[in-house]
Structure formats: C-alpha cells, structure tokens
Design a protein that fits this description.
single chain, alpha/beta, Rossmann fold, Aminopeptidase, eight-stranded mixed sheet, seven-stranded mixed sheet, 31 helices, 22% strand
Length: 901
C-alpha cells in the first residue's frame, strides 16, 4: 500500500545520505550532524564516490555498495544527477526518498524538464515514495530523527506540521523552540512531486501520536486526493490550514461575472470549508488556535460573552468581535437578574460584564460561571488587567477551578507582563487557552467558531427536496453535445436558456429579431411590456454597450429602441457581429431580488458553483458564496444564509418573504447540471429574479470547453467531490418475490437508519459492530449516513410498506483503505428480515460494487456464532479463517477472480 510505504520515510531503520560532503555548513554536512548527533537510533550510510569518509564515518561510493538496503535515501546532490540517482535507488530496492536538491520546476523551464525526468524514473518503481524535491526534509521528534538541514530538534508533541515552504519551516522551528511547542512530525514537502498533502493527511490521520495537523499551503495540485483525505480525517483530528498567496496578481479575471467573482482564494476558502478544516488568516495565530482546538471545547456558535475588570479591554474585544462577524450575545433576563443580585450596583449591566477594578477572585469566577450558564452563550472570554486590588494568580486559580463545571469554551486574556506569568501557567495546566491581547483572543475564537460551523456541515442531515426532471438527462446530454455545444464557444442566450429550462429552471425565452418589423411582430405576440437585448455572439456584457432595454410598452418604442441599440453597439464594438436583437417578455421584478447564479471550472478543483447578489453591480459588492457540486438541501440553504442580502430574501421591514424553498430547488438543479456537463467551462444566470412566488432566469450565458468537447473525459472527473452514484440504484426481488430497492445511502436517510438500528436485537448489533454500539445520537448517525462515496459506500435495502411509507431493512457498507485497493465489508439486516436471503442479495451486490471500483481485495470479520453470514460468505467463495479468539476473518481476492474470468 502506497500510504504504508511512507513508513520507510517516517520510521526508517537505515538511512543513506547521497551527496554528503565534509563541509560542515553544507546541506549534507548539517543533515549528517543532525542525524548522528541528535540521537537517531538507526544506521546512517554516507554515500559519496569522491570520499573515503565524512566526519570520520566510512563513506560508500554508491547505493549498490551498501552492506544492507536502506529504508530511506536522502538525495542532496546537484539537480542534474538526481534522475539517475532515483533510478539507482529504485534498482537497489529503496522504497523511501527525500530529495533536498533544488533546481527543478521552481527554477524555470529547464527545471520543469528535469523534474519530469525524475517522475519518469520514479514511475518505474511503483513501491517508491518521494518527498520533495526542493525541500528542507523531515523531523520526527519521537524517534530523535532530524533528517533535515534545520538546526535543533523541537520537543515531542502531538501536532503534525506540513509545509510547502522550507524557509518558513526554519522560522517555525525557531519559534517552536522558543515557545516550547512540540510536534509528532515536521515535514517540508517542497515541490510535492509525489507525496502530497493528501497522502500525508492520510498517513498522520492514522498515526496515534498525532492529535492535530497544521498545513502551510501555497497551492494544491491533487485536489480530489486532498479533499478525500481531509474529509476522512477532519472529523476525528482537527486540521488547521494557512493559505498564502490570497491575492495573486497573475490571476486573470474571467470574462463572465461568475469567473470574475470566483477568485482563486475564494475557491480555496470553499475547499477548506467543505472539508471541515479550520482556516487561519494570521500565521502568528496558528499555534494559538492549534492549542485552543486541541482542548476539545468547541463552541456551537459565534455568540460570545466577555467578563472583565476594566471597560477598555472589553470595548477593544467587542470591536474586534463585531469587525470579524461575531456576535456579542444579549444575556437573558434570568442571567441579568442573577448578576444584579450578585455584583456590586455599579457593574456594567450588560455584556461585556464589567465586574469592576476591585473584583476579587471569587467575584470574577462566580460572574463567569453565571454567564456560562446562560443558554444563549457559546463561549466566554475573561479579561484581566493588573490593578491595585487585583490578584492575577489567585483569579486564574479560581477560574480554573470553576472551569471543571462546564463543557463550554473559556478563553483568558491576562493583559500585562511578569505579574501575569503564574496565572497563565495555571491556565495552561487547566486546559484554558490564554492570550496576550483581546484582539488575539477574538481572532482565535472566530476561527474556532468558523471551524465549528464547518464541522457541523459534516454532521448535518439535509431535508429531502424532491427534484424530478422532465426529460431523460442522458438523452438530453446527447442532444446538447451533438446539436448545440458545437455551434459556438459562447452559446447565444436562447440556447443557454434552453438548457437551463430543460433542467427545470424557469426562464424568459428570448426570440431573435433581425429587423425592426420582426421585433414588433414578436413583441406583440409575447405581449407588452417586453425587453430588448442586443443579439451578438461577440458581446458578453450587453449592458456595457447599451445592449439592454427594459419595460418597452408599444411598437413605436420597439422600433426606436431597435435602431438606437444596434447603432450604439456598433459604435462601441465595431469588431462585433451584430445580428439584431432578442425580444422577451418583461418580468415585473419590483417585488423581487436579483441574484447571480453560476458555475466556473477551476483548473485545480474543477467545477465550482456561485450564488450571490446579482445585477450589474454583482462584481462591485462581491456578496457571494461558493460551493462545490453536488449540493443537497442543507448546503444550498447554507449558501443563501451566508449572503448579506439573505435578510431581504426572508422579508425585510414588511416586504413579502421570497420563495426560498423554490430557490433552494433551483440551486440543487443547477448542481445536477454542473455535474452532468464537464463540457461547460462557465455558466452565468444574471439576473436570477426571486419573487414571493417564482424564481426566473432573466439572462443566461454558457461558455463551452471546446477541448473537452473534442476529447471527452472520465465521468465526474471535473468534480472534486464524487456525486451521489445514481448508477448504483438497482431494483431486485428476494426469494419470496418481495421487491427491494438497493441504492447508496443518503444523508437524508438518517431517520430511517436510526429506525433500522432501533429494530435490531442486541445480538444483531453486536455481530455488526463487535461491541455494544451506541447509535442513538445525531453525531453518530450522520457519520454513517453522510459519506463522500469515494472511499466509503453504503448500500441500503429499501422496502416500501403497504401504507406507502418506506423503511431500510438492511445496509451493506464498504470502506476502502486510503489507497482504495482494499475494502472492508460489514452488513446489518434488521431481525424481521433475516433468513430471507437479503444478506446474500446485499452482499453479492456490494461485491459487484467493489469490483466496479477496481478494488483488489475485499475483507470482513464476524463472530463464530453468526452462522447465517458465514454461510453467505461461503456461498460467495470467500476464504474463511476461524481465529482463536472466536472471531472469523473472511477475504476475497478480486484481482484473481477477474483474471480467472
């Protein structure tokens, strides 16, 4: 397994240093000194054909001459020698390489060619994994292993740090020594030619010594691997990320509104949010946040209360909180009364809670406790400034003792110098994060609350939104690929709207008119008032050339508008082909909201969806939200709630609320369209009018990816997340002719999944989970129903009862290893449906699913007393092994089976 091969890099017993020299200040000299002098317990082989010894250690001419094959080789030669050295290492059977040498793709075209040669050599050895090139190396404090040219070794800890910048690594290490921060692993990945962020998240996600992962990201190349790994482990281990290059000058704005608004950084923001990661914007705050999130007291929201002994710091914290989008919670009447009864008369009578400068430790702690007991409060920030009557150490001790009574997050700001050190030490021991300034604390809190929201997204159960299509989508796709998309790079408004309308999104249908007379005739057929738009395949933004006219009420206005519009457009764009105008009915939007809805294909992350404030000012206000298809009800609703104009959709100051449910349906339909057409490079609906009753696309534009149209790509390869696998829906019958629907599980299935487990006996639950599994909680259930269909697939057996309601009567689950080569299988059948061959039917179907995914081996485990399932495995020709501890292990080699066929 490729991930396991990383053991040769991070747990080597023998290391070869290729290109090491006698210069103590060289990369090789420092690395050798770090290994030998740092306490590494393994064997180090210096390799240099020009040296008999290095620093008194015998040197070998090449890797073939080594007495034993090393697990890891570190290459630190000039770049031109690296391809040959990679080949020699592969031929010698070395599975792990770190290439510290620079001079590859980061140095220009010649470097890119050289890196391509290294890749070509590496491809000859499938078991080889490479970190680098152009990297600092790695440090594993638990093994006293410093395979880098960074000085010193940080202390052993539980944070895995992964960085694309070697220079930043040295700065972070210096800072870590000073701040006594510890690491489980410290990795500089450089150009990440082979081992990527996704690989390392997979590896450290399974490492018991790693409790959280910190990423310094400049760019991500393998998007699907990253997203799959991050979503798989972010539920169990916090992943904190800092993304540099937020405003790249080289990013070219696309021609459409969607393209211009979907900037590189906003796409990365959507990636981190969808993966459940915590994004930090201030690198100096990253380890403060890592420390905070490691304490496992995650607020459920962004509603903060502040307790302080001075007004100024409370105001500073409030300013920072509001500026960053947090909420200063309004304390409940009950809490206010309790504070009034306890505090002196001159307290602030609001939030922030000023307990006054003469506050005793007991007053501080009791006020904090009262505030924490308020149901509206998600977290409390306690701020203390040194005053004549203040005892910082005793107050810290009182807060720490009180903190054991609550599960809510407490943060402390002990503002001052040496007098605060003992109190801060008490907080550290009590698991309470402390900060030097109010702003620093607020930044950490807001990052924490955003992280909490991202995590909740992974656990939310969306509402069922019935979406049906008027046409067969496969037949529809054939029509557009053969008849419509080949017409032009940019489809005209009519063709663009036709596709959108076919996906169930209402549009106004424009009709082309080449002359004034035609325009009048069409307008009278549609009925006044009408809208005229310039008709040109070369003009993208019609309003920029005076190419849009609204509310035209009679024939005379149609003629005058036609003449003026064609004349103005010709003057402003003499290069454009003007073919007349289009005429469409005027939609009364005075009680509606204008939105923009669109998709754009990013070169790294594939198709991304955007919704935001629409109209001609869309790019100006940039009130937008990006997400990745596929969408469900909850994700679509979150997109809308994040917009600044959402209150207008809800109904603002007496205005009628807009049809948000219909709008959510439109977003979901758009996500289907985006998933079905990798040939669409960009799609704009602007404006999309949302009224109290309707959602209508007034203008639309589609840009075709002509390269993919000529050279079709693998299904869904343009999506960073695998859509719901509709192709796996299958109708079948049991031996008694009972019809059953086999289909992949959905997040919306949570209620039925809970009913399934609730109807199972303790014995059935034990046979499935091998322990007394507690399932009756939303957090647990969502983990089993909300899956990414990439590494994990669950097939449910759905039965329709006599009253028309549906139930899940069984579920088979396949979970792949990170390399997606081996899948573990588990099955649960409700007691009432056992002994009806449902177990056999479901297992056989899951076996075929695994084969279709290219899985090499299927494994499962049960107990000896589970005779029905052992019988099923025997029928399906699994290898069965009875273990000494009463368990039974079964396996099936799918590769061998395919070869036999």
């Amino acid at each position: 397994m490729a991930i396991k091969k990383l053991d040769s890099i991070f747990k080597p017993k023998r290391i070869a240093l290729i290109g090491v020299s006698n210069n103590p200040d060289s990369v090789g000299g420092i690395t050798l000194r770090n290994l030998v002098g740092g306490g590494f317990n393994g064997v180090v082989y210096p390799v240099n054909p020009k040296r008999e010894a290095v620093f008194g250690i015998p040197c070998y001419p090449d890797v073939k001459s080594l007495p034993k094959t090393p697990d890891l080789a570190v290459i630190m030669t000039a770049a031109q020698w690296v391809p040959n050295l990679v080949r020699e290492c592969g031929e010698a059977g070395i599975h792990g390489l770190i290439i510290m040498s620079a001079g590859f793709k980061e140095s220009g075209e010649e470097g890119k060619k050289l890196e391509a040669q290294v890749k070509a050599e590496k491809a000859k050895f499938p078991d080889m994994r490479i970190i680098g090139p152009n990297c600092l190396g790695i440090l594993v404090p638990g093994l006293n292993m410093n395979v880098s040219f960074a000085a010193g070794m940080p202390k052993k800890g539980h944070v895995a740090f992964i960085s694309q910048s070697g220079a930043l690594c040295t700065s972070v290490l210096d800072w870590a020594y000073e701040s006594n921060i510890g690491f489980s692993n410290f990795v500089s990945i450089g150009n990440s030619m082979d081992v990527s962020f996704g690989d390392l998240i997979d590896y450290f996600g399974q490492d018991p010594n790693t409790k959280s992962i910190v990423l310094y990201v400049e760019s991500i190349a393998d998007a699907r691997t990253f997203m799959s790994a991050a979503r798989a482990f972010s539920r169990e281990k916090p992943i904190i990320v800092y993304k540099s290059g937020r405003f790249p000058e080289s990013a070219a704005a696309a021609a459409s509104h969607t393209g211009a608004m979907a900037s590189e950084d906003s796409i990365y923001d959507a990636v981190f949010r969808r993966a459940g990661l915590a994004r930090v914007f201030d690198f100096g705050n990253i380890f403060d946040f890592t420390d905070l999130v490691g304490r496992k007291r995650i607020p459920k929201g962004n509603r903060l209360a502040i307790v302080t002994n001075a007004g100024g710091p409370g105001v500073m914290a409030t300013d920072s909180l509001i500026a960053m989008g947090g909420k200063l919670v309004k304390l409940s009447d009950e809490t206010m009364q309790r504070l009034n009864d306890y505090l002196p008369p001159f307290w602030s009578h609001g939030n922030p809670v000023d307990v006054l400068g003469d506050a005793t430790p007991e007053r501080f702690a009791r006020a904090t406790e009262i505030v924490l007991e308020d149901g509206k409060v998600d977290a409390v920030l306690v701020l203390l400034t040194p005053q004549a009557m203040t005892d910082p150490t005793a107050t810290a001790r009182a807060i720490a003792e009180m903190s054991v009574k609550t599960t809510k997050s407490i943060m402390a700001g002990w503002l001052g110098g040496t007098a605060m050190r003992d109190g801060i030490q008490i907080f550290n021991q009590a698991g309470i994060a402390s900060y030097a300034t109010p702003e620093q604390a607020i930044r950490a809190f807001m990052t924490l609350s955003e992280y909490s929201e991202n995590q909740q997204m992974l656990y939310e159960t969306p509402r069922e939104v019935p979406v049906s299509f008027q046409y067969d989508r496969n037949e529809l796709r054939k029509k557009y690929l053969s008849e419509v998309f080949p017409k032009a790079k940019i489809l005209n408004e009519d063709d663009s709207k036709m596709l959108i309308n076919d996906y169930g999104i209402d549009t106004t249908h424009p009709t082309p008119a080449a002359t004034e007379d035609e325009a009048v005739q069409i307008a009278e057929q549609k009925g006044y008032p009408v809208v005229l738009k310039i008709y040109s395949p070369d003009i993208t933004h019609k309003s920029d050339v005076g190419g849009v006219a609204l509310n035209i009420k009679d024939a005379e206005m149609v003629r005058a508008t036609f003449r003026n519009m064609v004349k103005t457009a010709t003057q402003k764009r003499p290069d454009a082909r003007i073919e007349g105008v289009t005429v469409q009915r005027m939609v009364d939007s005075k009680d509606g909201i204008e939105l923009i809805l669109g998709t754009k294909k990013d070169p790294v992350f594939g198709t991304v969806m955007l919704v935001g404030m629409g109209g001609t000012t869309a790019e100006l206000f940039k009130d937008k939200r990006l997400e990745f298809p596929p969408l469900n009800e909850h994700l679509a609703r979150l997109m809308l709630r994040s917009l600044k104009i959402y209150p207008l959709l809800k109904g603002w100051r007496g205005d009628s609320p807009k049809n948000i449910d219909k709008l959510i349906e439109v977003l979901i339909r758009m996500s289907y369209l985006a998933a079905d057409y990798p040939e669409i490079e960009e799609l704009d609906i602007n404006p999309l009018i949302v009224t109290p009753t309707d959602v209508i696309a007034l203008d639309a534009r589609i840009v075709v990816d002509e390269e993919i149209l000529k050279n079709p790509v693998k299904e869904y390869s343009h999506l960073v997340l695998r859509p719901y696998p509709e192709s796996l829906i299958c109708e079948c019958k049991l031996k008694d002719e009972t019809p059953v629907l086999l289909r992949p599980i959905r997040p919306e299935d949570e209620p039925m999944w809970l009913q399934l487990l609730g109807s199972c006996s303790k014995e059935s639950i034990y046979h499935r989970f091998r322990y007394d599994f507690y399932f009756d909680s939303h957090e647990v259930a969502s983990q089993f129903c909300f899956i990414d269909y990439d590494r994990e697939i669950a097939i449910v057996a759905e039965h329709e009862k006599d009253d028309g309601t549906k139930e899940i009567i069984g579920v088979g689950r396949l979970i792949a290893d990170p390399d997606v080569e081996i899948m573990e299988y588990a099955i649960l059948i409700t007691d009432a449906w056992q002994k009806k061959e449902l177990g056999y039917t479901l297992t056989k179907y899951c076996l075929n699913v695994a084969k279709g995914r290219g899985i090499k081996k299927l494994v499962a485990e049960t107990t000896r007393d589970n005779k029905p399932m052992i019988s099923v495995f025997r029928k399906l020709n699994f290898k069965i092994r009875f273990n000494e501890d009463t368990t039974v292990s079964v396996s099936k080699n799918l590769e061998e089976e395919e070869q036999n066929v």
